[in-house]
Amino acid sequence: MDKNAHLNRVIVDFKKLTPEVLKLLVERYPDGYDDRNIISFRNSQGERIEAVEVLTEDTKYLVKISAKLEYTMENYDVDDYEDFEDDDPTAVVEPDSEDMVDGADED
To answer: Is residue 101 within 8 Å of residue 68, measured between CB atoms?
Structure first.
């Protein structure tokens, strides 16, 4: 029997990402994710969703891909999250769109 058959499956948007799941994502994809890691599917409304997968002992998370997710993973610092409870969905701070623009002064 497939051990994944008993996992809960959860689709997570960036806005609902917990520090625990963010940490797992960064650990699983330390250099970021690429096309090989992306799972595409259609939700119940027929919309095409792209996500990356991360597993815990009892749950398979499909985290929706977005520019905010990529930015947050690239700038992840465990110290930023050590004071938050693992189940606090407000602990992952949404990046400012101005911070996400590549600086013109960088080479």
So the answer is: no
- Give per-residue burial for 12-33: e unless 16+ CB within 10 Å, then b: bebeebbbbbbebbbeeeeeeb
Global confidence as pTM: 0.63
Question: Each residue of 66-95: pLDDT tens digit?
Answer: 878 888 888 887 766 665 545 454 555 555
61, 10 contact by CB (below 8 A): yes
What's the burial of 63, exposed, middle or buried (CB within 10 Å: 0-12/13-18/19+)?
buried
Give whole-number Cα distances, 58 to 25, 27, 29, in Å.
Answer: 16, 18, 20
